[in-house]
Amino acid sequence: MRIVDICEITKPISSPIRNAYIDFSKMTASLVAVVTDVVRDGRRVVGYGFNSNGRYGQGGLIRERFRDRVLEADPAQLLNEEGTNLDAHKIWSVMMQNEKPGGHGERSVAVGTIDMAVWDAIAKIEQKPLFRLLAERKGLEADPRVFVYAAGGYYYPGKDDSALRKEMRSYVDRGYTVVKMKIGGASLAEDQRRIEAVLAEIEGEAQLAVDANGRFNLETAIAYAKMLREYPLFWYEEIGDPLDYQLQAAMAEFYPGPMATGENLFSHQDARNLIRYGGMRPDRDWLQFDCALSYGLVEYLRTLDVLTELGWSAKRCIPHGGHQMSLNIAAGLGLGGNESYPDLFQPYGGFPDGVQVEDGHIVMPELPGIGFEGKSDLIKVMRELAQ
Ligand SMILES: O=C([O-])CC(=O)C(=O)O
Ligand SMILES: [Mg+2]
């Protein structure tokens, strides 16, 4: 049993939207296939992965360093003890050989993308849904019913309050109970007007979260906190620079409601610093680390260990990214839920065909691997890369 190839292609996921920090007009993502020589159900096992939106494709790093390290390793060194399957932890170590600690940069995105494909292959070789395999390995009970919220509410040219209301209404009509919109890309007064418009639309049916995408300095963060705390928000997200733990810690004084952050922290060391120094409150705040951007599930397991050591429950994690990998982690390891972008970043985001949101939750279908084969538009582009 061995990995015979790792293929990568960088694909556009561009759209005219913008948040407080970036626009997505040139956004790309890496799609990766880990091709094995294993056959299941008459088909070669190929694991697939991709990186989340917000960071660009990683073809350079994947092709120059990480692919070759895996392909040049002794195949026996990449297997579990029994030699019956690939070992994601060993493959991870091979990818990270000769890499110094710290300076995580976007190396973590390249590794995380390949790691997703490796886990897809492992679960397919075992002919199980990844969430069942993860729960089994941890001695946990899987829960296929996962909380999901609808992320959107971007700024784009010509979008007025009625278009924003219509967008949020459509999420509520599709079964979501929490919706999210962007703030910080307009004046405070304008954002307040947008928030009030959305709250008027969804009142009594859903809750609203807001996301500043790391835009605010301390002064602006506080000014927004004083405005936002007058509303019953689900959370106030990524207020300041992701690495400014002191700013995050200071916010607790001004914002009693739930806050969320972590999508731009790319290692368990960064996550540990956030918990140590960011003043996050384990009884109400939310952690959004996204394995597809941060060295994959092998590293995410370390992050979960760090959280446990520091007195946090996995239930406080609702990852960024809206992909099926995090849905599997949520269902298998008991996270609090997952993000979803009902109308964006297709075909990568979303659920297998036929999965409906009901009362803010989906139920994971019993598909082998991560479940990409159940999403016809996605598996089509994956199989174009390798099969
Ligand atoms: O706009 C983005 O970069 C995505 C984002 O922050 C989120 O989904 O929370
Ligand atoms: Mg965000």
From TrEMBL:
Residues 161-258 form the Mandelate racemase/muconate lactonizing enzyme C-terminal domain. InterPro entries: D-tartrate_dehydratase (IPR034611), DgoD-like (IPR034593), Enolase-like_C_sf (IPR036849), Enolase-like_N (IPR029017), Enolase_C-like (IPR029065), Mandelate_racemase_C (IPR013342). The active site is at K182, H320. Its cofactor is Mg(2+). CDD domains: MR_like_1. The record marks N53, K180, E339 as: Transition state stabilizer. It holds the Pfam family MR_MLE_C. Binds 1 Mg(2+) ion per subunit. The keyword Metal-binding applies. Keywords: Magnesium, Metal-binding. The record marks D290 as: Increases basicity of active site His. GO terms for molecular function: D(-)-tartrate dehydratase activity; metal ion binding. Substrate binds at N19, N53, K100, Y154, K180, E237, E263, H320. Mg(2+) binds at D211, E237, E263. This is L-alanine-DL-glutamate epimerase. It comes from Roseibium suaedae. The lineage of its organism: Bacteria, Pseudomonadati, Pseudomonadota, Alphaproteobacteria, Hyphomicrobiales.
